[in-house]
TrEMBL record:
Name of this chain's protein: SGNH hydrolase-type esterase domain-containing protein
Domain SGNH hydrolase-type esterase stretches: 162-325
SUPFAM superfamilies from the UniProt entry: SGNH hydrolase
Keyword Membrane part of the UniProt annotation: yes
Biased composition (Low complexity): 68-86
Region (Disordered): 54-156
Gene3D superfamilies in alphabetical order: SGNH hydrolase
Domain of life (superkingdom): Bacteria
Residue spans crossing the bilayer: 20-38
Pfam short name (any one): Lipase_GDSL_2
Record carries keyword Ribonucleoprotein: no
Xref: InterPro entries: GDSL_Rv0518-like (IPR053140), SGNH_hydro (IPR013830), SGNH_hydro_sf (IPR036514)
Length: 341
């Protein structure tokens, strides 16, 4: 017959085993609740594209200089300065085999272990999921049902404003959403406001009697995180001094009102034929203005050169397919510029 333990000791043993089993079940429940979250990731509606990440990625912070080993101000130096532990003690001065902070050993003798009998095991009923899940986590196991209390809010889509002419507005297209700014916005999760207007330039007023300065004034009211502004062939024939001055003034006004925005300045676009020499002046002016305010200048070249099949009948504005080629080219050029390419 197995040796019988005192009643009080048996109760302590049974309670310890029950607590241990319940704790294990709780851990298992937490893991089952957390697995859908780890497997499916965020359910945020905003999935930034590669271009957005390239533009808005913060610059890496420089690491603080590491001090010499053993000097004050570093964790390693502080730890190394501690006095060596004596025999039978760890580095913190605690005697080996004792629990820090536990105080003097208890005077109650520990009972000798005895063989366990079936009467020592107390059966327990499985706990419901809501009892296992920690506070703030839903016990459901389906996709998207586990939510963490206090989780950070979804990242808002970046607010982007486009300032430009009829090439950027999608003139002549059946659907304005086929313009290259709209295409970039769609694939990169932007909240885009395309202020571009037919006939507009830095100096030349457009069909609505507005200039790029007019559009810039509207842009700052939207508090965008990204502004895209392009030089225009609409300014061909204006006084070169006026063009240089107005380009600088407009770009400077954007920076003054939006000190933290990423301002991207693009070179002037032509069509499928060789551009006139005067177009380079417009590109040089916006390049200089961008450098002056710390904006990013991007030379997009002439992606549609030699492609009359991608131009509308007026031979000025791209077709929907031409706008797609522009979107691909400009997206790659902007990403390369921010990557240092």
């Amino acid at each position: 017959m197995p040796e019988r333990r005192p009643r009080g000791v048996a109760e302590v043993s049974r309670r310890g085993r029950v607590v241990g089993v319940v704790a294990c079940a709780g851990v298992l429940g937490i893991l089952l609740v957390a697995l859908p979250v780890a497997g499916h990731g965020s359910t945020s509606s905003y999935e930034p594209g590669a271009l957005t990440q390239a533009i808005l990625a913060p610059s890496p912070s420089p690491s603080p200089p590491a001090g010499p080993a053993g000097t004050a101000g570093t964790a390693e130096g502080t730890a190394g300065a501690s006095a060596p532990a004596s025999d039978g003690q760890d580095a913190g001065g605690t005697s080996a085999g004792t629990v820090p902070g536990a105080g003097a050993p208890s005077s109650v003798p520990t009972p000798n272990p005895a063989p366990m009998t079936t009467r020592d095991v107390t059966p327990f009923a499985p706990l419901a999921p809501e009892q296992l899940a920690p506070a703030g986590i839903s016990p459901g196991l389906g996709e998207g049902t586990a939510t963490q209390a206090g989780a950070p809010p979804e990242a808002p889509a970046p607010v982007v404003v486009a300032i430009g002419d009829s090439i950027m507005s999608g003139h002549g297209l059946d659907d304005p959403s086929q313009s290259w700014p709209e295409r970039l916005a769609s694939r990169n999760g932007w909240q885009l406001t395309d202020l571009a207007d037919d006939g507009t330039g830095f100096v030349q007023p457009g069909d609505a009697d507005d200039t790029f300065q007019t559009q810039a004034d509207l842009a700052v009211q939207l508090d965008p995180s990204i502004v895209i502004i392009a030089a225009s062939n609409n300014d061909l024939g204006v006084d070169s001094g006026d063009l240089e001055a107005q380009t600088m003034s407009t770009v400077q006004s954007l920076r003054a009102a939006l000190p933290n925005a990423q301002i991207i300045a693009l070179s002037a676009f032509w069509g499928d034929e060789s551009p006139p020499d005067e177009l380079q002046e417009a590109t040089d002016d916006i390049h200089s203005a961008a450098d002056a305010i710390g904006a990013t200048f991007v030379d997009i070249g002439q992606p549609l050169a030699g492609r009359p099949d991608l131009m509308q009948d007026d031979d000025v504005h791209p077709t929907a397919a031409g706008q797609e080629l522009l979107a691909q080219s400009i997206e790659a050029d902007i990403a390369a510029a921010f990557a240092g390419g």
